[in-house]
Fold these 4 entries.
Entry 1:
Amino acid sequence: MNPRFLWGRKSRCFPQSLEVELSDFPTIALITEEEIDLNDLVAHVTLPSTGAAAIFAGMVRGITSRDNPHETVYLEYEAYKPMAEEKMKQVADEIRARWNTVEGIAIVQRIGRLYPRTPTVLIACTSPHRDTGVFDAARYGIDRLKEIVPVWKKEFGPNSEQWVEGDHLPEVLK
């Protein structure tokens, strides 16, 4: 099946040229410096048959209390956009292969300087009903993004800075 593309409508969250892939259902895979607008994002992946949306939002933490407790002043995210967005599309394809009831998928990662209490990543999956795996699909989306999408994070504290390397192996991938 040849994918078709729908050029994004005017939106506060997405660039005017956003391509939303339409095979049977909408898919968004986006690296952006813009704020993430949850309502706009969900509108892009909602169909007339949608009755449920499972959403995960990752945030910048100002205080980390587990492992090595510390304060974060801000984070800087970087990505090689073409490669990262291709990997995000791969994650969406994997979600569709595992949960065929998922209708829309949005995977959005912010880059740039982000301060505490700011959303950094958003995963949204929609489906006709809540009991069709939509929660598991969204969880898989964030876990898989952390595993394969090339996004780099540098953490700045009051007196230090360091590149952060994730060491979490999600349960779904073990």
Entry 2:
Amino acid sequence: MRNPIHYITSNPMKRRTVERFIRQHAPDIKIATREVAFYEPQTLDENKVIKYKAGEAWQMFQRPLIVDDAGFYIDEFPTFPGPLAKPTIMSLGWDGMLRLAAPSYRATIYCRLGYVDEDGILHHFRGKTSGVLDIEVPPSLVERRGVYALLRPDESTHTIAEMAGSSDVDYFSPRARALKAFIDYMTNNVEENKK
């Protein structure tokens, strides 16, 4: 049996999502969670953010681990807010963000996963989902679930938050898409090493 891969997060919702997804889709991959909050560089460069978090985590644990970072882009400003989503929302609020997203209200949510293997090598996996921000969502739900409460993927009639608890969420969630790419990599990598 392989040693567990440590998933580094301070977010209990992310932890539960990752643990459930791996348990359901790759039960041979063992995940152990470490609750650590990292400083996140304030940059529009997704790669720099994940590289920094992975480097910090590797320095602490020196074992295989996963870190992730999520954000979103609005079509009206294609490189914004990206990794700066959290401070932007804190500054503008969701009403301000929706005003920036007008008139198309189109956006793409992403999750970038960084897997550091036993040799300290960083591997990137990215999932994304594009759609329309539903401006009719109650503000209280948006405050709890953020952009997931607002984004209605192109191929769906429901927002990602409305899909919670259904199998659809694993199809549309950017984190699930990044995890699927990670699982595919791990499965192929293990198979290659057996040859």
Entry 3:
Amino acid sequence: MILSLALLESNRLSMLCYYLIMVLSDRDIRARLKLDLEISPFDDSCIQPSSVDLHLGDNFLVFDTHSQTVIDTKKKVDRIMKKIIIKDDEPIIIHPREFILATTIERIKFPNDLVGRLDGKSSLGRIGLVIHSTAGFFDPGFEGQATLEISNLANLPIALYKGMKICQMSFMQLSSPAQFPYGHKNLKSHYQNQKNTVGSNLNSVWGKK
């Protein structure tokens, strides 16, 4: 009986926390930008009803498939990737079933009580472009540019350009500020303060710094 009451109380607390976690509206995003959320550079016209549009940067990382036959998760991947930088009005072409890493122009700094969710633009999804394959979640305390995991699911190549709207970031309110936000000395925060396109640090999947 006591155990049942404890479980019931636990479920009530879980539901309360669920309802306390909210996606910020446009007015709340603007309010937090004046308070402790940072996006740079920032244009107010990029605020949508519950998200902020972000733009594609000019540098990319692609796998060198000609010299490598396997991606070994116990080895550094920077040795098998090459960097590409595009000029203004110069496209980067993503071929069918090709995967590349890219970056946003914007740098974002999250306060300790907000998390971010990054999603692709619907118009790009409708031509087969996946903007973030898996890691679309940004922890409270994260600071840096967002690295994008882009794939082309279409049957034709897709041309992308520097400065185009590429994705959107929404923000969710935590039930309370994180005790150890991203970048805290107690954590192994591999991508804090990342600049430009940053490749995978596979040490994280092996519990290494």
Entry 4:
Amino acid sequence: MDGRAPRRRQSQMMKKNMIVFLVLLALFCSGQTGKDRFIKVFFPDGFSVTAELAVSVEARARGLMFRERIEEDQAMLFLFEEEDIHPFWMKNMRFPIDILWLDGERRIVHLEVSVPPCFREPCPSYAPAAAAAYVLELQSGFAEAHRLRESDRLEFILPKDLNGFRSR
């Protein structure tokens, strides 16, 4: 035996330990950055939902794709750096939803109700007539049940680290 085998095993063990360490570090860090990624959104009738924040380009692109359902007290809030016309589509969705576009003052500038999922391309796009800073996706029928209308104002407070997203 020339001593190379024990060194090779030791090297392999160090690589495995480093990989385990990096995976644990990544999990710890992602948990820390994600802790404020749910907020309460309050509606004019006093009802509130817990909204998952879609902040990154990837999270906004993924949205509610592939999920089985969304409950009445759940939502997804998309944050954009700039107020603009932000079209949405329903590719890879499994259920219909209501979509609200909100301006920087958190007023509804456009809403689409019971938007159906798209199972075949080309999927239609849904876009507001006015610029929006936020888009809120809700369970289908929510807007009607809570009598939401254009110009209604919603209330929510964004986490402090999201200053670039019009935190007021």
